[in-house]
Design brief:
about 200 residues
């Protein structure tokens, strides 16, 4: 079974691609969702978060995401420290998940695939590309943020052009080229065993 990474900047449409793959019967591991769950279920990780960010990080046994976000949002050092705690645990969890899958290929969807080190041990990495202005507009509509707030979030991610150069295959989600036929073609190639014909 092939192990595939799926990445793209905020607002690129990687979740849309992941949902299409799921309808085609491909299992998808959503790293952000998994990380949120693991922060509430992994006792060792909880202890590390409390130790680094204070007892107030948890309220009634559940992560206080608003409190933690307030601490790390504008502090790159604290954000890096939090990511250094979460990423290895999430990567380990995804490795266990991959080992249980039976499809021709399975996908790990993550915005910070390269930044977190989660790109290691994958057979191929798929990038989802959209132009900057379109990505900003999508995130503004989705999350109700200002353009400046979206740009601040983007600064925490690897430059989009650089990210796409690191990918083995790039899907364009720019509202100029239809996305579904691109995903279908990629899916067929992966089911045949790879992206190189």
């Amino acid at each position: 079974m092939l192990r595939i990474g799926l990445t793209g900047g905020i607002g690129s449409g990687k979740s849309t691609v992941a949902k299409i793959l799921e309808t085609l019967g491909i299992p998808v591991y959503y790293a952000d969702d998994a990380a949120k769950e693991i922060m509430n279920s992994d006792a060792a990780l909880q202890a590390q978060i409390r130790e680094n960010f204070g007892e107030a990080s948890y309220k009634e046994g559940r992560l206080d995401r608003k409190y933690l976000a307030g601490l790390v949002f504008n502090d790159p050092e604290k954000l890096n420290r939090l990511n250094a705690l979460i990423h290895p645990v999430t990567i380990r969890h995804s490795e266990e998940w991959f080992s249980r899958q039976k499809a021709p290929y399975a996908v790990r969807e993550a915005a910070l695939l390269f930044e977190s080190g989660a790109s290691a041990n994958l057979d191929y990495i798929i990038g989802v590309y959209a132009p900057l202005a379109l990505r900003i507009r999508r995130v503004q509509q989705r999350d109700g943020l200002s353009a400046d707030e979206v740009k601040q979030r983007m600064k925490r991610q690897l430059n989009e052009e650089m990210k796409m150069k690191l990918c083995d295959f790039v899907l364009r989600n720019d509202e100029q080229v239809l996305l579904f036929p691109q995903v279908l073609e990629m899916h067929k190639r992966l089911c045949r065993g790879g992206l190189t014909d």
